[in-house]
Design a protein that fits this description.
Elements lengths: L2 H7 L9 E5 L11 H9 L2 E4 L2 H10 L9 E3 L5 H13 L3 E5 L11 H10 L4 E4 L4 H9 L6 E5 L5 H12 L4 E6 L4 H12 L4 E6 L7 E6 H8 L8 E5 L9 H12 L4 H12 L3 H14 L1
Parallel strand pairs: 1-4, 1-5, 2-3, 2-4, 6-7
Antiparallel strand pairs: 7-10, 8-9, 8-10
Length: 294
């Protein structure tokens, strides 16, 4: 393809200003990509991707011509070698687009070191937000979303894994984990042991894809449901925050104070009662006492 042909293939796509652009790519359904991400893919000077084959296929599906532009592989195993090339392109005043294999870059993704290197070198960083397995799983889980912790993949080694689960067990937020389908059954059993069998959770599999499946229940119920299953596909686990013991007045007071800074007494009581699984009357009485202190 000649330079003229390349210009024709990118006609209508705004040329991005110099800088590094992180774009979110579909986690399943190809049409979930944003129009802005397609514009950036069509107009950037240099493309980088965790998996260049995935990016090329995505561009073909959406009719975005590559032309003679370079596509640089950038992943965990070659980051140290690929970063200098991308940084040189930025120094030359070019626009560089980086796409993760699926979802939002830097979320369990090797793009973090590239972002840090570009920032340290003084180059502008931009993002075209879009698909995210974390947010998609939170949406369909039916669990609280006002405060959550993305804890990524649990460590594979037994000792480190146990310490990891103990550390996140008491975090007062909904937990989001990634896990291999081969280990999800084992992880559910470990979560039930470390976090409590009655803790509500959801196993989200193949989100936005043809065989999407969301299984909800307590950790004990999910452990039993997946004990004999051989599952395939991408897995996201969402686990409810720990409930407050009914005699833990400090925990309840802290939750109420946080809620009352943003909401009315009535709404704060409703939200805290649901989140901590406590009787509304008990929470209301605690809120009145708290209001009397302030």
């Amino acid at each position: 393809m000649t330079g003229k042909d390349r210009d024709e293939s990118r006609k209508g796509a705004p040329a991005p200003a110099p800088g590094l652009y992180f774009i979110a790519t579909p986690i399943g359904a190809a049409r979930d990509i944003t129009l802005r991400a397609l514009d950036l893919l069509a107009g950037a000077d240099v493309l980088a991707a965790e998996d260049t084959r995935t990016l090329r296929h995505l561009m073909e599906l959406h009719g975005v011509a590559l032309g003679d532009r370079p596509v640089v592989a950038y992943h965990d195993h070659n980051g140290a070698q690929a970063r200098p090339r991308l940084l040189r392109a930025l120094e030359e005043g070019k626009s560089v687009v980086y796409a993760s294999e699926a979802g939002t870059p830097l979320v369990a993704d090797p793009g973090y070191r590239l972002a840090r290197a570009a920032i340290e070198a003084g180059h502008p960083i931009h993002v075209a937000p879009g698909p995210s397995a974390v947010l998609a799983a939170l949406t369909v889980s039916g669990l609280p979303t006002d405060r959550f912790l993305f804890a990524a993949f649990p460590p594979p080694a037994a000792g480190a894994r146990a310490r990891f689960l103990d550390e996140i067990a008491a975090v007062p937020a909904t937990l989001v984990l990634y896990e291999s389908p081969k280990r999800v059954s084992k992880l559910l059993g470990e979560l039930a042991q470390h976090l409590g069998k009655e803790r509500p959770a959801a196993v989200c599999r193949e989100l936005t894809k043809r065989f999407e499946e969301v299984t909800r229940g307590t950790l004990a119920e999910l452990t039993e449901a997946f004990a004999e299953r051989h599952v395939k596909g991408e897995i996201v686990l969402v686990i409810d925050r720990p409930g407050a013991p009914q005699n833990d007045a400090e925990f309840l007071e802290e939750a109420l104070r946080a809620a009352l800074t943003e909401k009315s007494l009535k709404d704060a009581v409703a939200d805290v009662s649901a989140a901590l699984k406590l009787p509304r009357r008990q929470v209301y009485q605690a809120a009145l006492k708290l209001d009397g202190k302030d």
